[in-house]
Each structure stands twice: as C-alpha cells, then as structure tokens.
C-alpha cells in the first residue's frame, strides 16, 4: 500500500520544496496537475506551470518518491515529443516516473477550448489511444512504427529506452462500468477510477479489482488508485476514512486537496505525513 500527495498549486519555487518535504514526511509519491490555463466561472485564471519542467525540479530535490502528473491530458501533445520528455524524466529520477493519463478537463482548461484542440470525448479518446501506442513503442528502444487515423510514424528507433521495463507505468482513467473504457485499462499498468453514474464506493473498487483480475492478460503489476482527503491531526479518523478503500483493493491512496490551495495549509498537511493503518 502506498500513499501519494497531489500538490494542488503553488509557485514554481515552492512546489519542488513541497516534494522534498513530502518525501521527508513519509509519503510514497508526489503528483501535480497538468493544465495550461484553468479558466471557468468557479476557478478564474491562476498560475499554471509546465508539468515536465516542474517534475524535473521535483526529481532533483528527491530520491525516493514516485513522481507524475495527475492527470496528463496527452491528446494535445505530440507523442514523439512526449516520449522524449517522459523518458528523460524517467532517467533523471532513476525510474521513479509514472504516467496517469486521461482526456483532460477540456471545458475548464483554456488550453483546450480557446486554442482549437479536439473537444469531443470520442476524438480525444482516439488521440490518447494512438499516443499511448506510440509511447509504448518509443520507450522500448526498439524499432517501431504506427499507422493510425491521427498519427503516422515510419519505422524508427528512439534511444535510450526508458529505465523502467517494459515501460514507464501508465495509469489511464477508467470509467466504471463502461466496457470500452475498462478494456483500455486492461492494456496498461493501473487505473484512476471514475464512475459513470453516481459516486464511487468501496464496493465499486472491489468490483473493478475483480474485473481486472478476471480479464487482464498481462502479468506485470497493476495499481488501483483512489483520492480523498484525510485530517493530519486525527490519525484515528484518517485511518477510518482510508481503511474501507484499502480493504476493497486500492494500492494507492492519493491525498487530494483541490479546493484548498493555500500553500501554508497544504504544506502543513504534507508535513503531518500519510494516514497510517495498523
């Protein structure tokens, strides 16, 4: 069981410091948002930094924690460029990179809806799937090619390969119980679960775990994540919040405070450390 902290915001100097503090406090992973410009009535424009540069700074300040974006909107990125960015980060961190991926908050991020990016779910899903196929080939260090509806890659070899083998772990968003979404998850290394209708429950996580065990053909490790908020000053209550999800089968608890971006409060929670289950 691992515990991650999603840093909801901060300035470009503070976020790498938070990552180092999270490592010192016993967290197992540190994650940051991938956005270009959040611009909605509820969330006016605020600071958004490039995730790969920030994650590089975070890698330089840490030695143990897993690092990654939460969630990478890869439909708007050129796959071969993304392959080099993620491979480089994997090498810099000595194999501590993971890649959670999804369609992106297209209606909230001006980096989608104000610049002409693909907005339909179907279109973004198709772009994401092709991008993942190209990443898988590029990270291998072997010759690969790709011929799709959106991307065309002639036979090529990108060196060096990723440190992690067979690849950098990919955790797609999986919408339960939507069959097409869940079939995508089976091809990769983990799931960031969402529910088609209603709120996710531990029983849903248990069903997802059973579905994966019954249908996944790969023998590599598979992670199930869930995010929420626990009080750092009340260990018993924190344990009570997390325990049902652990019992249901998650492998990562993600401490997420998306609505609280006050740096002092976020840093205090980081320093209090992850919830502990006896």
TrEMBL record:
Residues 11-248 form the Luciferase-like domain. One of its GO terms (molecular function) is alkanesulfonate monooxygenase activity. Coiled coil: none annotated. The keyword Oxidoreductase applies. Keywords: Flavoprotein, FMN, Monooxygenase, Oxidoreductase. GO terms for biological process: alkanesulfonate catabolic process. It comes from the Bacteria. InterPro entries: Luciferase-like_dom (IPR011251), Luciferase-like_sf (IPR036661), SsuD_RutA_monooxygenase (IPR050172). Signal peptide: none annotated. This is Luciferase-like protein. It comes from Dictyobacter aurantiacus.
């Amino acid at each position: 069981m691992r515990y991650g902290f999603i840093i909801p915001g901060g300035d470009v100097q503070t976020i790498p410091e938070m990552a180092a503090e999270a490592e010192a406090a016993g967290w197992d992973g540190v994650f940051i948002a991938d956005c270009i410009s959040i611009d909605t009535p509820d969330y006016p424009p605020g600071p958004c930094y490039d995730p790969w540069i920030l994650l590089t700074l975070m890698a330089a300040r840490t030695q143990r924690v897993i690092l990654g974006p939460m969630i990478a909107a890869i439909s708007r990125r050129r796959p071969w460029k993304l392959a080099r960015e993620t491979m480089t980060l994997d090498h810099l961190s000595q194999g501590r990179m993971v890649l959670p991926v999804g369609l992106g908050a297209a209606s909230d991020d001006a980096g989608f809806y104000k610049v002409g990016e693909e907005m339909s779910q179907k279109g973004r899903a198709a772009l994401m799937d092709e991008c993942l196929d190209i990443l898988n080939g590029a990270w291998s260090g072997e010759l690969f090619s790709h011929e799709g509806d959106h991307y065309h890659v002639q036979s090529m070899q990108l060196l060096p390969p990723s440190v992690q083998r067979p690849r950098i772990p990919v955790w797609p968003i999986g919408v339960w119980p939507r069959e097409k979404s869940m079939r995508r998850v089976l091809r990769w290394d983990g799931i960031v679960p969402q529910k088609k209708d209603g709120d996710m429950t531990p029983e849903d996580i248990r069903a997802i775990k059973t579905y994966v065990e019954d249908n996944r053909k790969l023998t590599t490790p598979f992670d199930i994540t869930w995010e929420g908020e626990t009080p750092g000053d009340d260990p018993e209550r924190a344990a009570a919040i997390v325990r049902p999800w652990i019992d249901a089968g998650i492998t990562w608890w993600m401490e997420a405070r998306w609505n609280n971006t006050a740096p002092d409060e976020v840093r205090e929670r980081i320093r209090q450390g992850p919830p502990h289950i006896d």
